[in-house]
Records
---
Amino acid sequence: THVVTESCIGCKYTDCVAVCPVDCFHEGPNFLVIDPEVCIDCGVCVAECPVEAIFDEKDVAPEQADFVQINLRLTRQWPLITAAREPMPEAAAWAGKKDKRGELVE
Ligand code: F3S
């Protein structure tokens, strides 16, 4: 599966959603996750994300490894998103932030 990691927090550009052929994204207040049971590992979303938030599970950096479980858990909690929408209002500012995982709103 592919995994959405920390840099998506506060941004939600949703370019990933626009290209996903299987509708595997679920949306929370300030973050998106990928349903590992639906993702077909086509990888088209990876290059679309302006903040490089999406990785193949096997390429996730060690310090982002907990996002594998976060994607699995929040997929069950959040609704499907099937069409791109406007990024979050402060997306540009959030794009440059580091260590923002504490800001993830469930
Ligand atoms: Fe998030 Fe990037 Fe998609 S910021 S919503 S993973 S395009």
---
Amino acid sequence: MIQAEISNELFKRAQNSIPGGVNSPVRAFRAVGGNPRFMVSANGPYLFDEDGNRFLDLINSWGPMILGHASEVVQEAVQKAIPYSLSFGAPTRKEVEIAELIVSMVPSIEKVRMVNSGTEATMSAIRVARGYTGRDKIIKFEGCYHGHGDSFLISAGSGAITLGVPDSPGVTKGTANDTLTAPYNNLDAVKMLADANKGQVAAIIIEPVAGNMGLVTPRQGFLQGLRNLCDQEGIVLIFDEVMTGFRLAPGGAQELYGVTPDMSTLGKIIGGGMPVGAYGGRKEIMDFVAPAGPVYQAGTLSGNPIAMSAGMAMLTYLKEHPETYTQLDSITASMVAGMQQNMQQLGLNYTINRVGSMFSIFFTQEQVTGFDAAKTSDTALFGRYFNSMLQRGIYLAPSQYEALFVSTAITEDLVEQYVQANLEALQEAHQV
Ligand code: PMP
């Protein structure tokens, strides 16, 4: 057994002063049993906790550490920026440079506004879409998570489903009524909703590759079908690429699948680990944002110089090193191939979904193309598997309904270790 005394003690203390002992619900280990580990540092592929344990990290801060932890590229940029002060609340050259870089990389973005989290990005994007169209309703998809804005906490994935609160108290009926939900990958259902609410739908927001019910990929033609529907109905199509942006390709899932939305929301990787989000899209729509237009959205710390320096370093690296994506794809493919071999050896047949450097194992034999299928997973088995992996020094997301993220710091020899741990954990998890 690995040590956990100090983490356990800190968790006990934390619960007295922090709700549930954590600053974001997805960090709690409620769904898998046990207490969360308290981290001290991280380097390359590894996390180190208070008890001196080392873990191979497959969360990577839920996505942003695409180059591994404490990457020199990002650390140096941050260190260089610090002596110039941490915040001005006034415009900087770096904000212009990062905006230009994002515009050059993301197909749908002609203008972009920086914010401080993915939640802010999605909340702002739908406000702009509503202001632009003069309509109130939005369509989202079951199992997709777009942050904790009121409008999105209806049939939400990620921590909301993990904790069994997909429809949160505190969201007013009025707000809930303006959010329509459709099953992921079901174009007919979306068409019916748009038809039944003709002229009232401002936006369709979707994770073009869903990462918040475990990893679910879009069926062929699904994203293009949404694009066509939005064109016909004057609806703003928003791709929430908070997870997929700059991860699946330099231009995100929209580049990978060749479908360009009207607006996109971004986060995580743009900050290289600093708290950053962004939303952008067609000029005509983005010019509705204050002070260019009437839709208000602001932020004291938005475009923070340290965060912008980290982001510039990260995005510049990714733009200049497209081979990063082939490397990530091939490493992740080997991990998944190893897991599939393990299952074959053990006579198991669970579903693994993968796109590039994101993947999930679902403890179900059903094909997982949406939330209903994801929910057929054996979550108790997942909990045992998670804890067996943790005991073997592998840090997975503590929920069946999350994707895993691979970084470039995960090399072939670490893949071998991971695959061996997976074999043993699969065996152990089935011994009940
Ligand atoms: N959208 C998506 C697709 C996400 O995965 C997340 C968070 N994982 C968010 C929005 C919210 O981002 P944040 O946690 O930075 O507010």
---
Amino acid sequence: MRTPDRDAEDDYEDYGDDEDRDTLTDVPGGVRLQKVLAEAGIGSRRHCEELIGAGRVEVDGQTVRRFGARVDPEHQVIKVDGKRIPAKPGLVYLAFNKPPKVLTAMSDDRGRKTVTDYLGDRSERLFHIGRLDYDTEGLMLLTNDGELAHRLAHPSFEVAKTYLAEVTGPVPKDLGRRLQAGIELDDGIATADRFRVIDRSGNRTLVEITLHEGRKHIVRRMLAAAGHPVSRLVRTDVGPIRLGNLKPGVSRDLTTREIGELYAAVGL
Ligand code: URA
């Protein structure tokens, strides 16, 4: 639990509309709202005060305009412009570019390289959200926010994921239509949301495919079933998060905006 904030700013006079005062924002031992916002990376305290004054901040669904508000960031849902912010101290959200030949696991009893080998000596207990095959590269999200990880991995919240796949052969014009109509696999039909050809060269084609599916080897199986085995697969997007130019083997902290978008994608 974060210790109650007792810094110099506590000497400031509370001001604002006293009618706003209520149990939501007068949490005993709570932390000043502008401090919670600033620590979540929203901006300077001055900027956060402006956001509060402009009515852009909500605590548990209620707009708070009073600067003296004290809240409980461990348990209350705090939103800026309707997007939840990661207010709870100690939570970590990472985007990682998984190289090929790395196991999606935090350890392996057969001694293969795992995601942990790339995270340095972080002390948090991180979970990977979903899996990438041993040979598949690209964007993987890691967090110690159990609720978010659980929802992102749960089929009922399946967020869209986008992949770049290098496939064998020139692909026929109707491949996208077939994938979007649904391809029969041995465990049922799989459907792409979007598909496009990015580049063609010789006997190789680079395609982009987006789908909500989370089944094992799903992209490789769909493209193989359509007659175009995958020789290289890279995940570029998970819901609102993009791989961008993150280098293989490197991780970065998600921004507060990205975290808010992830929360929104799973109804948190
Ligand atoms: N589809 C695959 O075939 N492999 C992955 O790693 C992810 C999706």
---
Amino acid sequence: MIKGIIFDLDGVLVSTDELHYQAWKKLAMDLGIMGFTKEDNARQKGVSRMDSLEIVLEKGNKRYSDEEKLTFADQKNNFYIELLQRLTDDAVLAGVKETLIMLRKKGLLIGIGSVSKNTPLILEKTGLKSYIDQISCGLDISKSKPDPEVFLVAAKKLGLLPVQCLVIEDSKAGIIAAKAANMRSLGVGPEYEQLGADYKYKNLQCEIDWDSILNS
Ligand code: B16
Ligand code: MG
């Protein structure tokens, strides 16, 4: 029986993809990399900041030291944080608040499992913080999805066993991580059918058969 739901953040609860894209695009242009596209940005979904940087740099033809790469990642993040200042609850995806309220009413615990180190800021800006019981994010972990660490930390913080948790994700890396954590998974988002999740729904606005999922 499921007792806790662990939500991915970017692409599941909030739409920050466009802001990530703008920030990476600016960095790419600053570095003289012209070919960074939205398709490349789609590959950064659920991927850590440093791995996302590699996806940008592979579009150019220069090699950089680890120190330079850390500086570039900081530059992107500073610009991304600037963009996040303008975030409001408009960025909360359709059906999210209703789903969180309904699940809490059913007595479920709500956790976040996101590799983003900006999770606290995003939850604050979008007003979602008060719906969440525990946060596991990039600040708590050393290994990114597809490693299960972020979800295992979330389950631990919620005081639940992995088998008592359901992960909701929009990325392949996240679904692989959920399976590795021995948790069931529900895939949403533009690629929901291809993620390999146990349950597949386009978004949280759909008629989700919660009773059979939660009692399985
Ligand atoms: P940050 P999620 C992920 O969040 C994003 O999908 C991914 O695009 C981003 O690179 C990563 O967070 C790190 O984010 O640079 O803010 O620490 O999908 O796991 O909620
Ligand atoms: Mg995501």
